[in-house]
Write a structure and sequence with these properties.
Blueprint lengths: L2 H5 L1 H13 L3 E5 L29 H6 L1 H12 L10 H12 L2 E6 L5 H4 L7 E3 L2 E8 L5 E3 H9 L14 E5 L8 H13 L2 E5 L10 H8 L3 E5 L12 E3 L3 H13 L1
Parallel strand pairs: 1-2, 1-7, 2-3, 7-8, 8-9
Antiparallel strand pairs: 4-5, 4-6
Bound molecules: nicotinamide-adenine-dinucleotide.
The site of nicotinamide-adenine-dinucleotide has 27 residues, from helix 10.
Length: 258
C-alpha cells in the first residue's frame, strides 16, 4: 500500500467489508479520476477554471456567440483527452467490477477512459455524454467528432451542419443544457437501488449529477467519498478519504481481490 492508503487503512478495511456485503455497488466518477491521465479537471488545484473563462461552457453562450463556438472547437481539437490513457484509478474501478457487485458506473467524464480501461460498457452511464460524436442541434444528425475536427483543422472555425446548416456541438452536456432523460433516469434508478455508493474524484457541485449520492443516501446506501478536496456531502458520507484516487482505489480493489 502507498502512503495515503496506509493513512486510511481503517477506512479502506471498513469500505471493503461493506462492499463485500453489498448487492448493488454503484461507482460515481468525476474529472478527478482522469487528472492522473493528464486531463485537467474543472475545479481542482490545477483545474481549467484557473485558466479559462468558465462562461464558454454555458450552453446559452454557445448558442448565441460564434466566438464561443470557435473557441470551443479549438479547445476540443487541442484537448488532452485525445492522447490520454487510463490511469490506476480507471484500472482499479474496472477491477472492482470483477470482484464485487458493481451494478452501474455513473461517470460525469466525457473522455471514454472507463471504456478504455475495460469497464463493462453496459454498466457505464455517461451522464454528461462523451466527446466521440458531434450532433447538429437542429436536425440531430450525428457525425464522428474526428470528421468535424478535420473540418476545423482545414479552416472552418465554426463548422455548420452539412444537412441543414444548423449549429453543431459535441454530444456532451454544457452548463444549462438538458441531460438525456433516459440516461438521467437510469442514473437515478441505479442510485436509488445502491447499497454501497462510491464517489471518486468529484467536487459534487454540478447538478443534477451531484444529486445521485444524495438519492443513494436517502435510500439507505452507505456512501464513500474519495477526493483530494472537501465536498459538500462530506458530513453526510459514511467514509471520506481525502486522497488521490490513483492511490486509494487500487488499494481498495486490492483488499477486495486478496
Ligand atoms: P470538478 O472539476 O468539479 O471536481 C474534480 C474534483 O476532483 C476536485 O474536487 C479535485 O480536488 C478532485 N481531484 C482532482 N484530481 C484528483 C485525484 N487525482 N484524486 C482525487 N481527487 C482529485 O469535476 P466534476 O465533479 O467531475 O464536475 C465538473 C464537470 O467537469 C463534469 O460535468 C465533467 O463532465 C466535466 N469534466 C470532465 C472531464 C473529463 O472527462 N475528464 C474533464 C474536465 C471536466
Amino acid at each position: 500500500m502507498g502512503d495515503q492508503s496506509e493513512e486510511f487503512a481503517e477506512e479502506l478495511e471498513q469500505a471493503a467489508t461493506w462492499i463485500r456485503e453489498a448487492e448493488n455497488v454503484v461507482v460515481f466518477t468525476g474529472a478527478g479520476v482522469s487528472t492522473e491521465s493528464g486531463i485537467p479537471d474543472f475545479r481542482g488545484p490545477q483545474g481549467i477554471w484557473k485558466k479559462v473563462d468558465a462562461s464558454i461552457f454555458e450552453f446559452k453562450n454557445y448558442l448565441r456567440d460564434p466566438e464561443v463556438r470557435k473557441r470551443a472547437w479549438q479547445m476540443r481539437r487541442d484537448a488532452e483527452m485525445w492522447n490520454a490513457a487510463p490511469n490506476p484509478s480507471h484500472a482499479a474501478i474496472a477491477q472492482l467490477e470483477r470482484v464485487c457487485n458493481v451494478t452501474a458506473l455513473i461517470t460525469q467524464n466525457i473522455d471514454r477512459l472507463h471504456h478504455a480501461a475495460g469497464s463493462d460498457p453496459k454498466k457505464i452511464l455517461e451522464i454528461h455524454g462523451n466527446i466521440l460524436e458531434v450532433g447538429c442541434l437542429e436536425c440531430k444528425t450525428r457525425w464522428p467528432t474526428v470528421e468535424i475536427l478535420d473540418r476545423v483543422e482545414a479552416g472552418e472555425e465554426d463548422p455548420r451542419c452539412r444537412e441543414c446548416g444548423g449549429i453543431m456541438k459535441t454530444a456532451t452536456i454544457s452548463f444549462g443544457q438538458s441531460l438525456d432523460p433516459d440516461v438521467l433516469a437510469a442514473c437515478e434508478k441505479a442510485s436509488r437501488e445502491a447499497d454501497f455508493f462510491l464517489v471518486a474524484g468529484s467536487s459534487l457541485v454540478v447538478t443534477p449529477a451531484a444529486h445521485m449520492p444524495v438519492i443513494a443516501l436517502k435510500n439507505g446506501a452507505r456512501v464513500m467519498i474519495v477526493n483530494l478536496e472537501p465536498t459538500p456531502l462530506d458530513d453526510l458520507a459514511d467514509i471520506v478519504v481525502s486522497g488521490s484516487t490513483g492511490e486509494i482505489l487500487p488499494a481498495l480493489s486490492g483488499l477486495l481481490t486478496a
